[in-house]
Amino acid sequence: MKYSGACSSLLPYQLPLLLVTYVIVTFVSNFQVRSRWMLVFPIYALAQSLVMPVVGAVHYFVLAREQKRLGRYQFRYRRGTPPGVLEQIGLERAARTLAARTS
Fold it and tell me: Is 80 in a helix, a strand, or coil?
């Protein structure tokens, strides 16, 4: 292998070495809880670090387009107790009241 001075020409040789090193370090550092899935983890971590930022950026632009503004987006939630929980609390109170009256 002749070094041409370009770092990109070494990438096909360095990436598998990096993945093997990552597998060994992951396996040794987690030896007490070892599993065969630890062999797949470096590939999963690489895929996740490449895919998830793109998914997050696309989701951000979809939300920004829906709200018609860039910058920080607002979550749609209401403060306080959700209506379903209030209904459940009311039903539980009614059941306790009815149980107290019958006993």
Answer: coil
Three-state DSSP class for residue 16: helix
Which domain range does residue 61 map to? 7-74
Q: What value does the mean pLDDT take over residues 64-74?
A: 79
Give me 79's structure tokens.
């403060």
| Domain assignment of residue 86, yes or no | no
Beta-carbon contacts of residue 3 (< 8 Å; ≥ 6 apart): 9, 10
- Give the total number of structural domains in the chain: 1
Residues 42, 46: Cα–Cα separation, whole Å: 6
Q: How confident is the model at residue 3 (pLDDT cuts 50, 70, 90)?
A: low
Paired tokens of 74: 């607002």
Cα separation, 21 vs 42, in Å, equals: 10
Does residue 24 lie within any of the structural domains? Answer: yes
Helix axes 41-67, 11-29, angle to 10 degrees: 100
96, containing H or E segment? helix 83-102
